[in-house]
Amino acid sequence: MLSKPNGSTTNHEKVISVAVNVPLRRLFEYRLAADYPIPPQVGQRVTVPFGKQTKTGVILAISSFEDYHGDLPVEKLKFITSILDEQSLFGPSLLKLYQWMEKYYHAPPGEIWQTILPSELAKGKPAERSRDSIWQITQQGREALAGNQVAKNAIKQKLTLAKLNENRHGILHSRLADYDIQYTTLKTLAGKNWVLRDFIDALPIAHDQITNLPNNLVLTEQQTKAIQAISQSLEQYQTFLLFGVTASGKTEVYLRLIEQVILQGKQALVLVPEIGLTPQTLKRFKDRFNVNIVVLHSGLTDQQRLQNWLQAKSGDAQIIIGTRSALFSELFSPGIIIIDEEHDQSFRQQQGFRYSARDVAMVRASFENIPVVLGSASPSLESLINVDKNKVRRLDLTEKAQSQTDVKFRIIDLKKQSLINGLSRDLIAGIRHHLDAKSQVLLFLNRRGYAPVLLCHECGWSSLCQRCDIHYTYHHQSHYLQCHHCGSNRKAPTQCPQCQSEQVVPVGLGTERLAEAVTALFPDAKIARIDRDTTRRKSAMNDYVDAIKGGEIDILIGTQMLAKGHHFPNVTLVGLIDMDGALYSADFRAPEYAAQLITQVSGRTGRSSKAGEVIIQTHHSDHPMLSQIIHSGYATFAESAIEERVEAELPPHSFAAMFQAEAPFVDPVKTFLQDTKQILDRYSNLKVELLGPCPALYTKKAGKFRYQLFLQSVNRNQLHQLLSLTMNDIESLASAKKVRWRVEIDPVGDS
DNA sequence: AGCACGCCGACT
DNA sequence: GTCGGCGTGCTC
Q1: Nucleotide nearest to A23 (CA to C1')
Q2: Which stretches in chain A have pLDDT values below 70?
Q3: Which nucleotide is at minimal CA–C1' distance from A16?
Q4: Which residue is nearest to nucleotide C9 (CA to C1')?
């Protein structure tokens, strides 16, 4: 450091703390030359030398050269290669949210930023809006269209010209997909001077009227009350739980609130469970609002994601609809966050940095001073317990907004019944009855493939995946064995590998076999199987949905995918083929999930004037959850479930964290978790209970052994205190380097 | 996570 | 002799 004779420093060099994407719970310090042309700011991205490589990181702290007190002498620090952004990419509330997540989830900074940043930005690409352009029809084009000059077989060209002719102001290049126009067609047309492309700098948004209210729409009293309650809170943080039965008009409540938000010049962020539901939601919103709506989900290309993210950031997008990670879009003027189907599991990230978008959304909203609306017909116990604690305000929609008949439930006790491929006589009769009435039937079975086991009838050999120690699922059509755990697969044997017997038989029931059985029973019915295997193709799901709505399908057979969000007005019977697994599982949350599932699938039926029926097949017909759901509804079930959790001191009444470790051998895994436990045990003054190490539910996965150590406490602060106090020591454990490990806060399920 | 360094086995 | 296996250690 240089000093002037009078003692004041001349060195304005800075020391910059950077989050780099490595699995280390620390930042890295760099020097920044005093004459660097861009002033450093927290929230800018930088490129930095890192070992022998160059990485992109995010500035998280700036200190003066003189004030730096690290382990390394300041001269030994490397220089930042470059600052990538002129200004911080993030406003103060997202930076604060990052800080909160780091503290709460005890995750490495770099991993958190990897989740927050769109991948293009994480890779160091410039945060630049691509220039948009407008396609317009020319006078020649109009004449060509009118004078039938377009070649007869050039149907696409004709359609495209017609669409451009309808849109007087032209169509934005970035919006071509909305109009189903191909770029190649436009290029051909441009060659004939029938269309013209104009490059523009900003999005033209000028609408006199932002909403198109549907005709004759009368709100229910409850809807009106809910809208009023939330409206009064638009300028401040408050989480609302919109507990609305199916068809009670939750979406209409969202739309009215969004309208107010937009009129105030603010933006609305809407999270939906999965990509499959974005087109549907998008359409509903587009029909209603003449504003710029963007989507953010994994179905987009990286460049599209970046562009939409930047539109949210600049404020050019007034409504942002997306899945989980859309929560992290920077917003120019946030007005409201809406989480639809808030109970849905897909709001939890289960890879890498594990977080709950619902929980983080509430924190974010509190930093932004805006409301959050959590909507569901079957709310999570977490949200309901937050209502009891006055952290969340509950608004009920119990009346149906659309005319709809009530759903009739029937439980079929499978004990001592003879089944035809998993179907009871009553269910078969029910299907026939509904088909005769020209209605559609939905059969739900949460297990894809033909059969979960392939077994040798002679010697008892069964098809085990060596890497996971669980049974391969048999897929009949492809004649393959597939491990649904690790994804490995191999050809199915026709002879027993052990005794060469030909008596190798599939045991158990999957959707593929169910479809086969139903086809045999109802040869005249048109049957569609909808699961991950049949919807792999990109547009497959949409094609199925169209076919179902168009009445081309009589019986739908499917997994989880069918339970979510879609409205099939002509479905009047829903059959739940096998509820046993869902009722009794090692996971204490199983009944909660099953109750949500029943509520959701039963929402698929009875949407029209015809009466809806739900038939549940189970061996545990006396399970209390079933009668609660059927006779008193989800709310009553949830109340008693919460009571049970309180009594057993289980989450969400208590708070949990989990260390999970995995490696190709058991010993290092156990050693690491035992070492971890020892470190945690040093703070026995904190009221945190330690459970384990114990094997994970599926101990072996993809050739790795997995063990867990649970931390549980009724005092969330003490739990976090314990983790904060011990994390460094655990991370620097010698045994930590021999395994892959992570902490999960508020863990759920296994995986 | 990457990437380099380093120390032992089977190859031209 | 040396090519390359992955164990260990470091990243500012």
Answers
A1: B1
A2: 1-11, 201-208, 215, 276-277, 401-405, 565, 606-609, 750-751
A3: C12
A4: A737
- A70 CB less than 7 Å from any atom of strand C: yes
A49 Cβ contacts chain C strand, under 7 Å: yes
* Strand C close to A22 by CB, under 7 A: yes
- Residue A680 CA and nucleotide C8 C1' are separated, in Å, by 26
Tell me how far apart the alpha carbons of residues A224 and A395 are, in angstroms, rounded to a whole number: 11
Helix (H, G, I), strand (E, B) or coil at A586: coil
DSSP reduced 3-state for A78: coil
| CA–CA gap between residue A98 and residue A328 (Å, rounded) | 10
Which nucleotide minimizes the distance between its C1' and the CA of A111? B1
Of A285, A398, A386, A312, nearest to A343 by C-alpha is A386
Nucleotide nearest to A79 (CA to C1'): C12
* The pair of three-digit structure tokens given for residue A694, joined into one six-digit string: 């114990």
Distance A49 CA to B5 C1' (A): 19
Best CA proximity match to A686, nearest among A711, A654, A651: A711
Instruction: Answer yes or no: is A694 a known binding residue.
Output: no
CA distance A750 to A736: 21
Q: Are strands A704-713 and A238-244 parallel, antiparallel or unpaired?
A: unpaired
Question: DSSP 3-state helix, strand, coil percentages of chain A (rounded to 5)?
Answer: 35, 25, 40
User: DSSP labels for A320-382?
Assistant: EEESGGGGG---SSEEEEEEETTT-GGGB--SSS--BHHHHHHHHHHHHT-EEEEEESS--HH
How far apart are the C-alpha atoms of A62 and A69, rounded to whole Å?
A: 13
Closest nucleotide (C1' vs CA) to A24 is B1
d(CA A599, CA A583) in angstroms, rounded, equals 14
CA A182, A185, A191, A197 dihedral sign is: negative
Q: How far apart are CA A239 and CA A529, in angstroms?
A: 39
What's the CA–C1' distance between A79 and C2, in Å? 39
Q: Which nucleotide is nearest to A70 (CA to C1')?
A: C12
In this structure, is the CB of residue A54 within 7 Å of any atom belonging to strand B?
no
**pLDDT (tens digit, 9 = 90+) per residue, A655-711?**
999 999 998 888 899 999 999 999 999 999 999 999 979 999 888 888 889 999 999
Q: Is the CB of A738 under 7 A from strand C?
A: yes
Per-residue H/E/C for A662-709: EECCHHHHHHHHHHHHHHHHCCCCCCCEEEEEEEEEEEEECCEEEEEE
* Helix (H/G/I), strand (E/B), else coil: A134: strand
Any atom of strand C under 7 A from CB of A659? Answer: no
The nucleotides of chain B lying under 7 Å from a protein CB are 1-4
Task: Quote the CA–CA distance of A704 and A254 in Å, as a whole number.
Answer: 45
Rounded, the Å distance between the CA of A113 and C1' of B7 is 38
CB A728 within 8 A of CB A25: yes
Q: Which residue has the tokens 């001191």?
A: A649
**For residue A387, what pLDDT is reported?**
97
pTM: 0.90
Q: What is the pLDDT of residue A703?
A: 83
C-alpha closest to that of A82 among A118, A115, A54? A54
Residues making up chain A, counted from first to last: 751
Nearest CA-CA partner of A349 in A357, A359, A339: A357
Alpha helices in A535-652 (DSSP H): 540-549, 580-583, 590-602, 624-627, 634-647
CA distance A159 to A510: 44
Q: Which nucleotides of C are covered by protein (CB under 7 A)?
A: 8-12
Can you give the distance from the CA of residue A51 to the C1' of nucleotide B6 in angstroms?
18
Give yes or no for a contact between A516 and A476, defined as CB atoms under 8 angstroms apart.
yes
